[in-house]
């Protein structure tokens, strides 16, 4: 494997955090170049607005926070997950979008080719890998790359707005560096199919995805019986929720599955994907989750990172297409949580940011960092209701995977 590109202070950089104690946050306007065009749902505006909100809230000014950028990952690093022929195809399409080949998932409605696509996608991989290795080597405690989380990209083709799979490459780098076990938890509304596929046969990697069922949503996978390959049974975990699930059901599902699995698996590092397209306002999904519940899950995963992984935690972005009302607030909460500066839900959204949004988009922005929804749920210990669709989904997952890890599906 080639050496990973080294993170450096970005244009918004602050003083370096104390080794092993601070956090690194990826941001640089260059990440806006991952741009499929004006009519595509994955607008880079969502990234720029997130960073601007973090600045307005003072999150990048904390002395424990280092804002970093990254060079594009070299081909040798990409090839630890992706096929050389596919990388070559991305390069060709990147230089001349007319040359995009649909057999590689390029030039499609989901993944239209654009000039500079290879460099833009490889830079995201470089950033997430840098963060993972910085955490592993003790240079920082946590890292967050809200530009990352491209979880649909497969070894040989692009899929679902994702060209290269930064999460999978970062996990592979950790394993190559000597990590014995890595856990990946994905809370995007869409199934985290890419990391699952890459590590299907690897018992050193636990992939957990809590998502809307493939019966109603792309990519049509992620069912409870997808449990991992031979010798790795129980390390692929899928909670497939019915459309329409709101905060209480979503939180119950996450807490009924993720904590016991992580405690049993005991990972050396925790990688999490925080796609905020579970929100009720997202135009692509069908769950009815609030920013408040998303904030609660970030906090839970933070606590679990300290409990089971020595605090070694890398948080990634992902999907999210309500680019004014949801994405900036959800990921500003994530950055605040990673930085050990959690924001109170009722925190006002800074007026300067709201003015910028109105000037840029002609739309009014939310006034507070909350949707006004109390983040509460009943724990699994409250009992199983066979008439409840969420409980049936949870139990299907627990029945499928818990016994492989020595856990009781009903009581652990």
From TrEMBL:
Task: Print the keywords alphabetically.
Answer: Acetoin catabolism
Kindly give the Gene3D superfamilies that the UniProt entry links to this protein: Histone deacetylase domain
According to the UniProt entry, its GO molecular function terms are: histone deacetylase activity
Q: Name one Pfam family in it.
A: Hist_deacetyl
Q: Which GO terms describe its biological process?
A: acetoin catabolic process; epigenetic regulation of gene expression
Q: What pathway is this protein said to act in by its record?
A: Ketone degradation; acetoin degradation
Keyword check for Nuclease? no
Residues covered by the Histone deacetylase domain:
40-337
Which InterPro entries does its entry note? AcuC, HDACs, His_deacetylse_dom, His_deacetylse_dom_sf, Ureohydrolase_dom_sf
Family from the record: Belongs to the histone deacetylase family.
Protein name per UniProt: Acetoin utilization protein AcuC
* Species whose genome carries this gene: Kineococcus xinjiangensis
């Amino acid at each position: 494997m080639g050496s990973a590109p080294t993170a450096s202070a970005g244009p918004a950089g602050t003083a370096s955090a104390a080794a092993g104690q601070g956090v690194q946050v990826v941001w640089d306007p260059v990440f806006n170049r991952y741009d499929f065009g004006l009519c595509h749902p994955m607008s880079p505006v969502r990234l720029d607005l997130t960073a601007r909100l973090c600045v307005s809230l003072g999150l990048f000014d904390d002395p424990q926070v280092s804002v970093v950028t990254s060079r594009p990952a070299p081909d040798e690093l990409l090839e630890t997950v992706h096929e050389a022929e596919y990388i070559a195809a991305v390069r060709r399409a990147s230089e001349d979008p007319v040359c995009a080949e649909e057999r590689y998932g390029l030039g499609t409605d989901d993944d239209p080719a654009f000039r500079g696509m290879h460099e833009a996608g490889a830079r995201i991989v470089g950033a997430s890998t840098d963060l993972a290795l910085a955490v592993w080597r003790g240079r920082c405690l946590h890292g967050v790359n809200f530009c990352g989380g491209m979880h649909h990209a497969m070894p040989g083709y692009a899929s679902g707005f994702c060209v290269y799979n930064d999460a999978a490459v970062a996990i592979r780098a950790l394993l190559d560096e000597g990590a014995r076990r890595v856990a990946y938890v994905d809370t995007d509304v869409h199934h985290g199919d890419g990391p699952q596929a890459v590590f299907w046969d690897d018992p050193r990697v636990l992939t957990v995805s809590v998502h809307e069922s493939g019966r109603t949503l792309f990519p049509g996978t992620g069912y409870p019986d997808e449990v991992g390959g031979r010798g790795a049974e129980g390390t692929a975990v899928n909670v497939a929720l019915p459309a329409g699930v709101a905060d209480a059901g979503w939180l119950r599902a996450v807490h009924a599955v993720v904590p016991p699995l992580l405690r049993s698996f005991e990972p050396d590092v925790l990688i999490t994907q925080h796609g905020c397209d579970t929100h009720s306002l997202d135009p692509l999904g069908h769950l009815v989750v609030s920013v408040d519940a998303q904030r609660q899950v970030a906090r839970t995963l933070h606590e679990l990172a300290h409990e089971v992984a020595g605090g070694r935690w890398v948080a990634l972005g992902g999907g999210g297409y309500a680019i004014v009302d949801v994405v900036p607030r959800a990921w500003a909460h994530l950055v605040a949580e990673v930085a050990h500066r959690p924001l109170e839900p009722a925190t006002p959204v800074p007026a300067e940011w709201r003015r910028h949004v109105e000037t840029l988009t002609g739309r009014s922005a939310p006034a507070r960092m909350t949707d006004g929804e109390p983040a509460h749920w009943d724990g699994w210990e409250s009992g199983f209701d066979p008439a409840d669709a969420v409980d049936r989904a949870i139990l299907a997952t627990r029945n499928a995977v818990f016994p492989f890890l020595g856990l009781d599906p009903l009581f652990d």
